Amino acid sequence: MNVPLGWLLTFFDGEAGANGLSDRLSQGVAADGRDELDLEAAKAAKLVELLDGLGLSVERVFELPPAPDGVIVAEVVSVSPVEGSDHLLLAEVETGSGRVQVVTGAPNTEVGMRTALAQPGAVLPAVGLTVTTRELAGAQSRGVLCSPR
Predict the structure, then answer these.
(1) Is the backbone of residue 13 left (phi > 0), alpha (psi -120 to 50) or beta?
(2) Which residue positions does the secretion signal occupy (predicted)?
(3) Residue of 87, 120, 89, 115 whose CA lies nearest to 103
(4) Cβ(72)–Cβ(119) under 8 Å?
(5) Where exactly are the structural domains of the chain?
(6) Which CATH architecture does the domain made up of 71-145 adopt?
């Protein structure tokens, strides 16, 4: 099971909350000219040691890469079939600064879900795509709904 550190920290409250735990993990971790990434790795190693001491085995620790520029979280507010297509859907999504429509082929798209939206101009390095506004099956799409890949 993957456990985000932010979720794990919700189990610590008050002084021992996120800041308190971070302070505890920093104890005994000297800067010694290390950059911030080295310090975070040292804190993660200390957290693994603490969890192992509680009998909670940690198989591995990894950092998720940040989302590419232009990729945001959007909420699907409506979904309808694209006329003339047997598999495309037209989703209206709320971006936080307005609503846009996106054509998608993802059959699991449903109202209320939150998903990654690559806005026009975003570069998706995993698939080598620069997102543009385009027409698909006669419907205007102003972005791409992204899968976890």
Answers:
(1) beta
(2) none
(3) 89
(4) yes
(5) 5-54, 71-145
(6) Beta Barrel (2.40)
